[in-house]
Each structure stands twice: as C-alpha cells, then as structure tokens.
Specification:
Order of helices and strands: HHEHEHEHHHHHHH
Strand order of the largest sheet: 1-3-2
Low-confidence stretches: none
Number of helices: 11
Number of strands: 3
Helix content: 55-70%
Structural class: mainly alpha
Radius of gyration: 19 Å
Largest sheet: 3 strands, antiparallel
Strand content: 5-15%
Shape: globular
Mean pLDDT: 94
C-alpha cells in the first residue's frame, strides 16, 4: 500500500505543477492531502469537485481514482443545513440553488457505499454527524461550519426584511433577483462577520471551529498530525 501511496502522491503533485496561476493552489494542495488520507483510511470518503478547482484538475483526479479502481459516485452537493428556524420559502429556494451542481464521492471501503447512495438519493440531505463521519472531519468543526451557515442565513433574511420593509413577496423577489446584501445594522454586521470567520487547518480541507483554532480542542490538531504522517509516508516534498 505504501508504494501505491507514493505513486499516487507523485501523480497528484505532477498534476499540481501543470496547473496555471488561475487555480487556487491552497485548495488543490488540500485536495491532494485529502485524497491520500482517503487512501490510508483516515477519510472514508473524498469529496471531489465541490470547490473552485479547474475542470482539467477534476477530470484528471477522477482518472487517477479510476486507475486505482476506487469507487466513484457522482451525486448532488451534500448539505446538512437545518432550515427549521427560517421561512419555508427561504429553505426551498436555498436548497434549489444547490440542485444544478454535482460532485463526486470517492472511496475505497465498500462499507460506505450504502450511506453515500442513500444520501445522494435524498438530494444530498444528511445530518451533521453523518457528514463528519463520512468525510472524516471533526464533528465540532462540522457543527461550527453549519452554525456559520445559519448566521449567514439570519443576516441575509434580516437584510431582505429591511430592504423590503417586511413584505414577504418582495423579500422573495429580492432574494431570487440577486439583490446586494450589504449588512448595515449591528446585528447584520455581526452575523456576516461570524459567517465568514474562517480558520483553515495547516493540512486538510475542513474549516476549524473556534475551539480547535484556539487550541482548546485537540480534534483538528490530532487529525492534522494524522495527515502529516500520511504525507511523510507518501514521501511528498513540501507543496
């Protein structure tokens, strides 16, 4: 397995070198680490194609997965957002915005195939715990990700309500019409600040919760150490 890990790391590193300056290098490096972590069993499922990676990157990584005879399932974007506190129309329209997009779920352990297919059949809806377990992220960080999402939705609705003077139909028109959602009130500013308060780990693609970022929780640190060991076993040069 070590030889496969090293060879795969070399292929992914070579692919990275072929990308032009328009690609987000940080994102692609994180994908390399995630792919190798999936091969080593740290991540049950590698989520591919959801970010801003160039189409050629997506295509060639899928080719590498195929050469390794990994399981690859195309499906909708997964989303564990709890819209319970928001208006029904907002939940429906927010979910509809994700419907056109597709991602690929790559894994080597047949045991995860059933939950992956079940979630995809449910239009990508799943629990936060399921997302954390299947994608190999700290549960605390996944929960924090969706709390940030909720703060974004609260801020968005507050702005729409302010711009429409509380007219529900106008709120929907503004939302669908792509109105400029500039926070003005203190609450709107705080909601958007929290929504975009992102802390990336040194290795990997998840966003850390405040506790992990501040060092009071070790979940992200432990996972980053596991990633570091995988990278060492793959004999990757710093990328």
């Amino acid at each position: 397995m070590t030889s496969v890990l090293i060879e795969t790391g070399q292929k992914l590193s070579a692919l990275l070198k072929r990308q032009d300056d328009t690609a987000d290098r940080r994102e692609l490096v994180a994908e390399i680490h995630d792919f190798l972590a999936m091969l080593e069993g740290i991540k049950p499922v590698f989520l591919h194609g959801r970010g801003l990676a160039p189409p050629i990157w997506i295509e060639e990584v899928l080719g590498i997965a195929g050469d390794l005879e990994l399981r690859v399932i195309e499906g909708p974007f997964w989303d564990a957002t709890d819209y319970g506190e928001f208006p029904e129309w907002y939940a429906e329209k927010s979910r509809a915005q994700l419907e056109p997009y597709r991602a690929w779920y790559i894994y080597r352990d047949d045991a995860v195939e059933m939950p992956v297919r079940r979630i995809n059949a449910a239009s990508g809806r799943l629990s936060m715990t399921e997302e954390a377990q299947l994608l190999g992220y700290p549960v605390c960080c996944v929960n924090a990700h969706y709390e940030r999402a909720n703060r974004y939705h609260r801020g968005t609705l507050a702005i729409l309500k302010r711009l429409s003077n509380g007219d529900d139909n106008m709120m929907q028109k503004l939302f669908l019409g792509g109105a400029q959602l500039t926070p003005v009130t203190q609450q709107e500013i705080e909601d958007f600040h929290e929504a975009f308060d992102i802390h990336e780990p040194r290795l990997g693609s998840w966003n850390m919760c405040h506790s992990c970022a501040n060092g009071t929780n070790s979940a992200s640190k432990v996972l980053s150490m596991q990633y570091s060991k995988v990278i060492q076993r793959a004999k990757l040069n710093p990328i």
